[in-house]
Amino acid sequence: MRSSSCSGGQVGGMESRLEKFQIIFNNPTATYRVGDTVYGYGWVILKEPIFIQSVCLEAVGEAKVEWMTSSDIQASDEEVFNYTTVLPVKSEKDNPEDLLHAGSHYFPFEFTLPSKLPSSFKGRHGRLRYFARLTITTPGGPHHERTSKFAVISNLDLNKEPDASLPVENDTFEAIGSWCCISGTVTASIKLEKKGYAIKEAIPVWAEIKNLSTRRICSTQVSLIQNVTYYSFRGRFSESSTLVTIHKGGVAPRGKQTWQRELLSIPTVAPSHLRGCKIIDIQYYLELSIKPAGIARKVKLPLDIVIGTVPVNKLQSPRTSYHPLPSTVSDSACPFPFFENVSDQVLLTDKLGLRNMIPTAPPWEEDDDIP
């Protein structure tokens, strides 16, 4: 087979010869943890024979940030992972090595995710995403490619984070009312039994609010806030978003409200810090918010926390194992049920057992966010 790099030219006549082109991952959700080996294959159905120069796989992890200032646009990008390989192609007997006949062709691949990759992430002004791109290059330059995203979950062991197991608290004493009419003061405190919590863990919240004013407090709430900082070569930009909120009722003048282990559940989010990425940083905090009646600003009391993947004082949880090539159908059954009337001719040597492989990931879909 003629040698070639994974770069190609413009999409040419091959477009009309392709009936199907898809990337299949062995994980149904296309979500992997750092250190996992990603297995999959490219599946191509040709309407007519075609000579090819190479079949290349690229697995890429990249971060991009962009925001607008009063004078210009700040932007930066970073590549955190890159794996590139030329996949083997074996044609039928008596056929040229670089000729693919009409019908189905399968191109298996595998690659291992490094242990220090950052998690996938998407924010309003930046994102970190991973994707696999399969490129078929034909002699003379025209090529066709297919791209499919996969997600990565990094590892943050809270047992290795400073102060993650220690209790934390914060308090405040503030006047409420407008500048010309102070109604009195409010004291508030919030505390947690530890600073570090794992994804999907519930946070027990203790809080106390004393309304020492003549004005009623309409409501109180505690929210989990994600703060993201984006970095470019010339500056930085931060944005905050509320992930989860739990509410309590109002507090009468001279009244008091107590929170006793009110539970706030952590959703599936990227771990704190986003280590391994230099242009995006993620921090989390709880915020106790107190809303007085009438014209008066809210009293807000923040408390920093750390969100990880391994809980404090617990070992790394066992991983779900995805067999690279599930075999749950008989040899006579069609191994590719997504499409009808598919030839089961396998032109590759069947080292990975492709005849018994069921595609478990959803079909590839258009996504303008992928180049």
Automatic annotation (TrEMBL):
Q: Which positions, given as ranges, span the membrane?
A: none
Question: Could you tell me the Gene Ontology terms of the biological process aspect for this record?
Answer: protein transport
Entries under Gene3D superfamilies matching the protein: 2.60.40.640
Instruction: Provide GO CC annotations from the record.
Output: cytoplasm
Which family is this sequence assigned to?
Answer: Belongs to the arrestin family.
Signal peptide start and end residues = none
Report which superkingdom the organism of origin falls in.
Answer: Eukaryota
Annotated Arrestin C-terminal-like domain residues: 182-312
Q: Record's Pfam families?
A: Arrestin_C, Arrestin_N
Q: What is this protein called?
A: Arrestin C-terminal-like domain-containing protein
